[in-house]
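Input set for joint prediction.
Command: fold jointly, output C-alpha cells.
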Amino acid sequence: MSVVAHETDEDLPAWSLPASAGESIHLPSVWPERVTREWAFGGATGAGVRVCVLDSGVELEHPLVGEVQRSVAVTKEGDEIHVDDDDSGDLCGHGTACAGIIRALAPECDLTSVRVLGAGYTGSAPVLLAGLEWAIGEGFDIVNMSLSTTKRQYVDRLHELADRAYFKRTMLIASAHNMPVESFPWRFASVVSVGSHESLDPLALYANPNPPVEFFARGLNVDVAWLGGATINATGNSFATPHVAGMCALVLSKHPELTPFQLKSVLHLTATNVGGA
Amino acid sequence: MSDLRAAVAAGVFGTDEAFRSLLQSTVETARAIFHAKASSVFLLDEEADELVFEAVAGEGADTLVGRRFPSSTGVAGWVLVTRQPLVVDDLTKDTRFSRDAAASTGYVPRGMMAVPLLAEEKALGVLEVLDRPAGIPFTLAEMDLLGLFANQAAIALDLLQRARRAQAALAGEGELAALGRFAARLEDATEETRAAGLQLLAALEQLLG
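C-alpha cells >
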C-alpha cells in the first residue's frame, strides 16, 4: 500500500510511516526562498480552477459574471433534500455579487452556483449542509461561503464537513461575523475566515494576528453585480469573502499542487501587512 | 421553567404594548442615528416560515405593520438565513426589487442596511434601515453601530416573544394561568392585601424549599 495519501481515497488510511517508506513520499518543495505576490499569482488568470459559490443562486448571463459552468439548487421537501440542476437564477442578488467579484479577480476560473436559499428559515441549515456536502463531493478547489449558521445542533456536522473539505483539497472561504454571537463555519481552523478592511484595493489583504477572523479583505463600498444585469454598491464581510476566493483561485491556477494548508500559508505570506508587495 | 418565570414576569411587569413601544423606540432611534428615511423590524414567524413587519419608523409606519412575506426571499430573507449583515445601495437599479417593493409596500428604497436579530442560537428577525443620506460613503464604524443596534432590537424582540408566549399560557386553563391571575391581582391589590399576599408567597416559597 502506498503511503502517498493525498491522491485518491483508495490509498487511505495512511496512519503510520515505516522507516523504509520515507524516500517514497518525498514531496518536492514548491516554495521559493521568499514567497512574493509575483510568485504566488503574478500573471495568473484562475484558469483551470473550479470555484463554487454557495449562496442565493447566480443570475445567468450577467455581464459581470460571464459563463456559469453549472447551476444547481438544493431544496427540501419534508425530510428529503434534493440537489438538482436549476436555471431559476438568483433569489436575492447576493450570489450574483459574489460570483462577479470572483470573476473580476480570476477571469478564467470555472464558476458553479449552488443555491441554498429559498427553503425558508426552518429548512436553511439542513439545506446549507447538504449543499456543502454536495460541493465537497464534486471536488471543487474553492467553495465561497458568505454565510453562517448559529444553530448548535448542526455545528458538529458542519465541523466534520469543513475538515473533510480541508483534507480533500477543497478550500472553504467563509465570512466572519461582526456581531457578538457565535456562528459557524467561519470559526473553524480548517476554513479561511474573512472580515472587511476599509481599503478600496481589491487585492489588499491583511492577516489578522488575533483570530478567529484570519484575514481582512475588501468588503466596503464594493461595486457588485446584482439582479437584472445591474451593478450596485454594497458593503459586508460577505463581499470580502469572494475577494479572498478570487485570490485563492489565482494562486491555485499557478500552483495547483498546493494543499489548503499551503494555500492558507501563501495567503499569510503575501498579505499586505506581512510581506506581500 | 423559563416560561413559568416569563409568565409571572409578564403578568406583573409587562404587556405586549410595552414591549411593542420598546421595539418602536428602537426603530425610531435607528432611523435618527443613521439619518435614514425609514427603519423596520421584522419578526420571524417560525410556524408560518414568514417575516412579519413588527415595528416601522418613517415611510410606511402607518401601513406596513403586520404585513408578511416568505422568510427566505429578498435581502431580508438572505440576511436572516445567512446571519450576515448587508448594506446595499442603488437598489432602484434592480428592476425586480423595485417592482416588488412598489407593489407590496408602495415605497421603493434606494439603499438598505439589513442586519439579523440574533439571540443565542436563534435568529428572531431582521432590522432594516432604509435610505441613509445619499452620496456619503458607508463606513465600517457604521457597520459596528448597526450591529450594536441589532443587539438592542434583538433583546426587545426576545422580550416581546417571551411576553406573547407567557400571555398565551396565562390565557389558558393550566396551572400557569392561576399563577398569572395571582400575579395580576397582586399588582392591582391594595397595599394591605398586597403585603399579605407577598407574605403568603414567601411562606409558600419556604414550604417548597
